[in-house]
Specification:
Blueprint (H helix, E strand, L loop, with lengths): L12 E4 L2 E8 L4 E7 L4 E5 L4 E8 L1 E6 L2 E6 L3 E4 L5 E5 L3 E8 L3 H4 L1
Antiparallel strand pairs: 1-2, 2-3, 3-10, 4-9, 5-8, 5-10, 6-7, 6-9
């Protein structure tokens, strides 16, 4: 099991629309993923059974979780309960660091 990762490790996956992601670390119970967005990039509304905690590492995002929307900046964070529809719009280029429990097997495929 990998315990540490460095800032330049991990392969980026192009998600289209100027967005990409890379898996930082994972176990069966937990996964940490970095997402990079270009200015105006959209994380389309979606849901999944995983609980998600997200940290805004850089930039500003309009974040919608369920029926709530707010603008978050670097240093802010949010949580997404299981099966709640959520999405983001990058108001400027930025990065999110998301943690999922359990891990996202679909990201490993």
């Amino acid at each position: 099991m990998k315990i540490f990762t460095r800032k330049d490790e991990g392969d980026w996956t192009d998600l289209g629309g100027g967005n990409r992601r890379r898996i930082l670390l994972h176990t069966d119970e937990l996964m940490m993923v970095e997402f990079a967005f270009e200015d105006g990039g959209v994380g389309a509304p979606h849901s999944h059974p995983h609980v998600q905690a997200s940290y805004v590492a850089q930039g500003r995002f309009e974040v919608t979780v369920g029926d709530r929307t707010d603008v978050l900046s670097a240093g802010d964070s949010f949580i997404v309960p299981s099966n709640v529809v959520h999405g983001v719009v990058a108001l400027e280029a930025g990065r999110l660091v998301d943690s999922f429990t359990p891990h996202r097997a679909d990201f490993l495929a």
